[in-house]
Design brief:
The protein has a four-stranded parallel beta sheet, sandwiched between helices. It contains 13 helices and four strands. The chain has one domain: 3-Layer(aba) Sandwich (Rossmann fold), CATH 3.40.50.620. The chain has 271 residues and is mostly helical.
Length: 271
């Protein structure tokens, strides 16, 4: 494959993210940030970057495991927070989820609906934790996931800041390795953990190493035919990824408002 379609990790990434975090926390008059941690590489990296940027006393991590999360992984997540020296709390998800299932709000046999419910319940807990500490919620979504719409609207997408939102997944791995994150975190298959056996790459249909090259080609405004030719892959696969990015634009945008007055929020009145 052509090496020109490989996203590069900017040498200034860590320092730029640190300045970003400090500036937004200061602007909001917040005491720090809350990070939802899961044992995955994205949340581990955001927690580490926040700790380096703000100091451990201004970072609170929270784990919200469901009943399928192994005890070993729960202990690993807590241990990582202790290693960073940041705040940590665990809130079991099962009792929260059970009430929604009992009331029939969500079909217990609908795997996607239950996955979205879990993501949205976690968002509720993050914001309550943030209110308690007068903090902002730092999300853990990366550029690959955001472009592909691979997140739950008002779930893991419901955050105040996205510190690694301009890093492709492959760059997240590169920066995490450079910072010496634990081997278990670096080697664990990416998963949203929304149902048994779920992995990101299986659900997306190809490995991030290839997805990121397609997305990087799109970022450079290359035509689908050129991307397919450079990556030596079927054109229909590139077109499918482009279609997914286009279809999920609504997830990346604020709710649209019809223009009825002189200045309209999100159109010609921008905060």
């Amino acid at each position: 494959m052509d090496g020109s379609l490989v996203p590069k990790l900017p040498s200034h990434a860590q320092e730029t993210i640190a300045r970003f975090l400090r500036a937004h926390v200061a602007e909001a008059g917040a005491k720090g940030v809350v990070v939802g941690v899961s044992g995955g590489i994205d949340s581990a990296l955001v927690a580490r970057l926040a700790k380096e940027a703000l100091g451990p006393e201004r970072v609170w991590t929270i784990s919200i495991p469901d009943d399928r999360m192994p005890r070993e992984l729960r202990e690993e997540v807590a241990g990582y927070a202790r290693e960073l020296g940041v705040g940590f709390r665990e809130v079991p998800l099962a009792p929260l989820e059970a009430r929604f299932l009992e009331e029939g709000v969500v079909d217990p046999n609908d795997r996607l609906a239950r996955g979205n419910l879990k993501a949205r319940l976690r968002m509720v807990v993050w914001y309550e934790e943030a209110r308690r500490h007068r903090a902002l919620v730092a999300g853990t979504g990366n550029k690959s996931e955001l472009l592909l719409g691979y997140f739950t609207k008002y779930g893991d997408g419901g955050v105040d800041l996205l510190p690694i939102g301009d890093l492709y997944k492959t760059s997240v791995r590169e920066l995490s390795a450079a910072l010496g994150l634990p081997r278990a975190v670096l080697e664990r298959p990416p998963s949203a953990g929304l149902w048994e056996g779920q992995t990101d790459e299986e659900e997306l249909g190809m490995p991030y190493a290839l997805l990121d090259r397609i997305l990087y080609g799109m970022e450079r405004l290359l035509e689908p035919e050129e991307i397919a030719r450079e990556l030596q892959m079927p054109l229909e696969k590139v077109v499918a990824i482009e279609g997914r990015v286009r279809t999920n634009r609504h997830k990346r945008r604020p709710a649209p408002i019809p223009k009825l007055s002189l200045r309209t929020l999100g159109l010609d009145w921008r905060d």
